[in-house]
Write a structure and sequence with these properties.
Layout (H helix, E strand, L loop, with lengths): L2 E8 L3 H14 L1 E4 L2 E6 L1 H14 L6 E7 L6 E2 L10 E2 L2
Parallel strand pairs: 5-6
Antiparallel strand pairs: 1-3, 1-4, 2-3
Length: 90
């Protein structure tokens, strides 16, 4: 069973930022700058985290992964690029 996660990052060094962006963009759905939605089971989430740990610097970078329950309703205000499964208030 796949679970939904929000992945966001703040990477302090431009070269690492590029690597993290490339990796996360290939694995998750883009929502907005440095924020992605990831569908993963336990094993694929563990693999995702291990791969990120090889790229980032634990002392200066910040990567966060927030689990979303199936009932989580996301609301977006303002300009949006993609709204797959997202309720947009206008």
């Amino acid at each position: 069973m796949l679970n939904k996660y929000i992945v966001c990052y703040d990477i302090s060094e431009p070269r690492r930022l590029q690597k993290v962006h490339r990796y996360v963009s290939n694995e998750a759905e883009f929502l907005q700058k440095s924020v992605y939605k990831l569908y993963a089971n336990k094993k694929s989430l563990d693999d995702f985290i291990r791969s990120l740990e090889k790229i980032i610097c634990l002392d200066s970078d910040d990567v966060r992964i927030y689990p979303l329950s199936p009932q989580t309703k996301v609301e977006v205000w303002g300009k949006h690029v993609r709204s797959f499964g997202i309720h947009v208030l206008e």
